[in-house]
């Protein structure tokens, strides 16, 4: 689970404190449980694991058993990736409805992704 804050926010310090609170506050961990996965913060994880019963306890236990076998998760997407996904969906829709050819779709796809990621 990744939390992020827009670089255009008018309140960067407050946003950073809010994300810190979501990730590191044991009380938040107790409320959220393992709905977003087992918390990475070990102190918060203790609060989540303690006193859980039934399926939630089983999921948490299973996940923690795999901890040493699992490598780090996927890195966050690069800046602009979300915009690229949205643009590619539009191109896809135009292609499947016959509004553009496959060659046009491929060209527009490459242009859109490069523009969104700032690589073109």
Characterization of the model:
With 120 residues, this protein is an all-alpha fold. It has two domains: 12-69, no CATH class; 81-117, no CATH class. It has six helices and no strands. The chain has helices at 12-24, 26-32, 42-49, 54-65, 81-96, 102-117. The two termini are 29 Å apart. The relative contact order is 0.08. The mean pLDDT is 87.
Explain the layout of strands and helices.
Blueprint: H1 12-24, H2 26-32, H3 42-49, H4 54-65, H5 81-96, H6 102-117
Helix pairs in contact: 2-3, 5-6
List the total number of helices: 6
Overall structural class, as computed from helix and strand content, comes to: mainly alpha
CA(first)-CA(last) distance: 29 Å
Binned, the helix content reads 55-70%
Quote the average pLDDT.
87
User: Which band does the percent of strand residues land in?
Assistant: under 5%
Low-confidence stretches: none
- Listing every helix as H and every strand as E from the N terminus to the C terminus, the arrangement reads HHHHHH
Main beta-sheet annotation? none
Shape: elongated
Radius of gyration: 21 Å
Record field, number of beta strands: 0
Q: In total, how many domains does the architecture comprise?
A: 2
């Amino acid at each position: 689970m990744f939390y992020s804050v827009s670089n255009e926010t008018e309140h960067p310090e407050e946003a950073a404190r809010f994300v810190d609170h979501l990730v590191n506050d044991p009380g938040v961990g107790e409320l959220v449980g393992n709905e977003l996965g087992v918390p990475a913060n070990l102190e918060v994880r203790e609060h989540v694991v303690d006193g859980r019963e039934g399926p939630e306890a089983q999921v948490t236990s299973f996940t923690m058993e795999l901890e040493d076998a699992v490598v780090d998760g996927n890195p966050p997407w690069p800046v602009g990736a979300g915009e690229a996904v949205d643009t590619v969906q539009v191109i896809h829709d135009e292609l499947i409805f016959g509004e553009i050819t496959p060659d046009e779709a491929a060209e527009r796809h490459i242009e859109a992704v490069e523009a969104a990621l700032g690589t073109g």
